[in-house]
Every structure is written in C-alpha cells, then in structure tokens.
Specification:
The complex is a heterodimer of chains A (about 220) and B (about 280). With about 220 residues, chain A is of the alpha/beta class. Helices cover about 40% and strands about 20% of the residues of chain A. A six-stranded mixed β-sheet of chain A has the order 3-2-1-4-5-6. Chain A is globular and about 65 Å long. Chain B has about 280 residues and is an alpha+beta fold. Helices cover about 35% and strands about 25% of the residues of chain B. Chain B is built from eight helices and twelve strands. In chain B, helix 2 runs antiparallel to helix 3. Classes of the chains: A alpha/beta (about 220), B alpha+beta (about 280). Chains A and B meet through helix 1 and helix 3 of A and helix 5, strand 10, helix 6, helix 7 and helix 8 of B.
Chain lengths: ~220, ~280
C-alpha cells in the first residue's frame, strides 16, 4: 500500500441497497423437475451475487412463494447473508396474493431504508410462474400504479404452461417466456442485470437491457 | 525566509501579496470493474487545462450507463465545455465579477450541450444516446466557480486547509438515477456555484468516488479523505509522479471493494510565492 493510500480515509457510508423480491410460483404444476430446477437456479443466484464484492453488499433478496396461499419465505437480506430455502410445490395458484405480498414487502423495506438513512436503488420485483391469474384487475392496477410512480421495476417470466395473457395483463413491461427449464441461465442473467443496476441512468429508462442469451424462448 | 527591506512610511506596512505561481494538478481515471467485465470502455471523460497562469479549468463527464454512445457524448462535452471557457476568458477582462464568471460557465455548459447534440445529429442517432453528466470548474486564486449537471461533486479547500463541498450530487429517490446534460431541462436545473476567498486547493470527481469521499446524505466533504490527498499533491511537484500515484490509489483494492463504477478524480493545489522558504 502506498503512503498516499494509507493516509486517505474513506467516508463511513452504508452501501446503497438494491432490493429484489422474487415472486415464485410453487403451485402443483411446478412439482418435479420444475421445482428442482428452480431450486438449483436459486442457489446459482445466491452464489453469483455473493461472489461479487460490490453486488454482494448491495443487492438484497426477498422471496415470496405462492401456491394455494402466498407466503413470505425470505424477508430482505443482503446476498452475502442469503441462503436460499428449498421450495416444494403443491396446490393452487394465488398469483395476486403473491404479487400483493411482494409489493407490500417492498414498501415496508423502503420505509425501513428511509427511517435509517440508507440510500437505495429502484427495487426489482421478479415474477416466475407457469400458471394464470383469474382476476387480474386489482393487481394489474397496483403494479401499473407503482411503475408509474417509479416505485418498482416489475418483470414477469412465464414457464411453459403459463397463460401469457395473464402475464401481459399484470406486467407493464413485455414479459418473457422461459425456454424449457433453463432456470440457471435465467438466474445468471438476473444476477448480471442486478450487478449493472449501479450504473447511472435517467429515471425513466429502467429496462432489462441485457440480451437474454440462451434462457429466453424465442 | 528572506526579507525584503524597503524604506516605508511606518504608518503603512505592506504585506507581500501572494502571487500564484500556478496550479499543481494531478488527474487519474479508472475503468470500473463492471465495464472491465463486459469489455466496455471507461465512460468517464475529463479535460484539464491552465490557459493562463493562475487559471485552472477542469471538466469531467460521466457517460450514462444506458446510453449507447455515452463515451463519445462525455468526451465531446468536456472538450467543448473547457474550450468555451478558455476562449471566453479573454473577454472576461480584469473585473472578474461574479455574474460575468457565472455567465461564462453557463454558456460553456450550453455550448457543450449543443456540441453533443450536433454530434448525435452527425451520427444520426438519438440525442439521449450520448447522455452524460457534466461538471465544469474554473479555479483561480481569488475564487472557484463550478457548474454541474448530475452527480459527482466539486470540493474546495480554503487557505486554512478546511474542505467543503461546492456542489453536490443530484439525486432523486434512487441512488443511481440522476439528471443528464441531454435532459430537456438540464440547463434550467444546473447547479451554478461561486465561492470567493483565499483557497489552497480544489478537487472534482465523478460519481464512482462519491460514496467514498462524501458523507451522506448531506454530501459533506470527508476531511480525512481530501486533506491527505491535497497535502500529497502539494508535496509532489513532479506532475507525472503525482498522477501515477493517484492512479495507483484509484486502482487499489480498497477502492475496488466499494465501487464497480468508472472513477475520475482531479486534484489541484495552488502554489503561492510566499510559501517558498
């Protein structure tokens, strides 16, 4: 270390946080290979984020699962301290419940940031589902309102069998469809997208710019 | 210390007026690990010039992450902004009034913006594709003036060595979202600051460094960051060595652990005659 380096002290600021909530479909149709692949993808997600010096401290992960009911499986935690649960699949598909719980979680997290003077990036909400939503009006409105306010960047990915009409109705941005069970590739891509979130952009330009590579069904 | 004896009226004691012998400047830049990983170029640009003795012009621009030609926009902006200040300085004359200096800065920012716009037109791309932030500083023995659109900041050290922020990063709710030179209302919301006083140094930097050297959320200059830095520049007259050590610092592990962004840092100290032993 040079003399200059030794003499300079850094300001003691907390790293700005990037909260990302995963909204995961664990209904009956996701059982078997699908849930195994999803669980493996979550572990990849964790490893990739934690391996990055800066992202490891900044990205905070939360998980909401939904089947017959919606449940917070993981409240926000920095990726360094994130150890993904092993999810099981059975039951119905309360997608609206899942999305609502996730948005509630984000709202609470922002409130906590504000109360503690912690800086943060625009939160991400990432929905992965193979099902459909019966009555999307309320949740579609809520997502749209949040996006308009700039409160969240919401993305939806459909697994084979997902009703694209449902995804289209909820997500303001164009949804994407997963090719086969390429959850690993999906989570690697999500990690890369989250890592690049620290780059400065104008407020109205949040988008998934990264080319999706091999995981998107085209 | 040598003393000059003159016959003076003892009612009138004159103090030697410090005459700046010039600015000692060091500038360094680092491509962020994020850009390194993707093979992208550094999207920060800077330009430093001393057009006349005692006058220092610094321009720094940070290309927007989402803009395809950000690197080009940043370079065009700094070159044109600095050039405009240099050309306009001759017209400022001896008065050096606040409004004249600030107007020169305003016009230089506007000129930089127009140049970026023209570049976009030449390339037949959207103006926004060349988006960058922009900081423009005019530093002189008697004052420091700065214009800023976006984040990063300018920090000044007074004669006593105390440091303070002259400008502050522009932030909305989100840490990574700021205003760019290409924004429609950029020139209307631009920060324009001027400080008069005896100064000893100035530093300007892009947002990659702002978490390390400013105390958030007030964005106060962190003294233990800037004081050693300014001392180092003052004590290192060999400019090449100063620049190389500054670069080494920016490339250090400590810095890399806290930011993956491109980083640009320009530091300058003013050398006065009466400092000579």
């Amino acid at each position: 270390m040079s003399a200059l380096e030794q003499a300079i002290e850094f300001a003691n600021n907390t790293q700005p946080r990037c909260p990302c909530v995963l909204i995961l479909d664990t209904s009956g149709s996701m059982a078997g290979n699908r849930i195994d692949a999803l669980n493996a993808g979550l572990r990849t997600f964790r490893d990739e984020l934690a391996a990055d010096e800066v992202a490891g401290k900044r990205v905070e992960v939360a998980i909401v699962e939904f089947n017959t009911h919606a449940r917070v499986v993981q409240d926000f935690v920095t990726s360094e301290n994130f150890f993904p649960p092993t999810l099981t699949a059975s039951g119905g598909t309360d997608m609206a419940g899942g999305v609502n719980k996730a948005l509630d979680l984000l709202r609470e997290r922002k409130r906590q940031y504000g109360a503690n003077g912690i800086l943060y990036y625009r939160p991400w909400a990432f929905l992965i589902t193979d099902g459909e939503i019966v009555d999307s009006q309320q949740v579609a409105q809520r997502v749209s309102d949040e996006e308009k306010r700039g409160g969240v960047a919401f993305f939806a990915v459909g697994v084979e069998g997902a009703k694209e009409e449902s995804l289209r109705s909820i997500s303001t941005r164009p949804h994407k469809m997963l090719s086969g069970l390429k959850f690993n590739e999906l989570f690697l891509w999500l990690t890369a997208s989250l890592k690049s979130v620290s780059q400065t952009i104008p407020g109205d330009m949040v988008a998934l710019n990264n080319p999706t590579g091999t995981w998107e069904l085209v | 210390m040598s003393a000059t004896t003159v016959d003076v009226d003892t009612n009138f004691i004159s103090v030697p007026i410090p005459r700046p012998t010039g600015w000692q400047v060091a500038a360094a830049q680092k491509r962020g690990s994020r850009h390194e990983a993707s093979g992208a170029n550094c999207e920060d640009a800077y330009y430093v010039v001393q057009p006349v003795p005692g006058l220092l012009v610094i321009a720094i621009a940070d290309g927007a992450g989402s803009a395809k030609f950000a690197e080009i926009g940043a370079n065009v902006a700094v070159q044109h902004g600095a050039a405009h200040v240099c050309a306009g300085w001759e017209l400022v004359g001896d008065t050096l009034g606040d409004s004249i200096i600030l107007r020169l800065l305003e016009e230089a920012m506007s000129s930089a913006r127009s140049a970026v716009q023209a570049e976009a037109a030449t390339r037949e791309v959207e103006f926004q594709e060349l988006a960058s932030t922009m900081i423009l500083v005019i530093a002189h023995q008697e004052f420091v003036a700065a214009a800023q659109i976006g984040d990063g900041a300018v920090v000044v050290a007074d004669a006593a060595g105390e440091v303070f922020s002259l400008t502050a990063p522009v932030q909305g709710e989100y840490f990574n979202e700021t205003v760019f030179l290409t924004a429609r209302n950029a020139l209307q919301i631009m920060q324009l600051k001027l400080w008069r006083g005896e100064m000893s140094g100035v530093a300007a930097f892009s947002d990659g460094l702002q978490l390390l050297c400013l105390e958030w959320p007030e964005c106060l200059a962190h003294a233990s960051f800037f004081k050693p830095l300014l001392e180092f520049i003052r004590d290192t007259p060999e400019e090449a060595r100063a620049a190389s050590e500054l670069a080494e610092f920016l490339h250090s592990e400590r810095v890399g652990k806290l930011t993956d962004d491109d980083v640009t840092l320009v530091v300058a100290t003013l050398r006065n005659d009466h400092e000579e032993g």
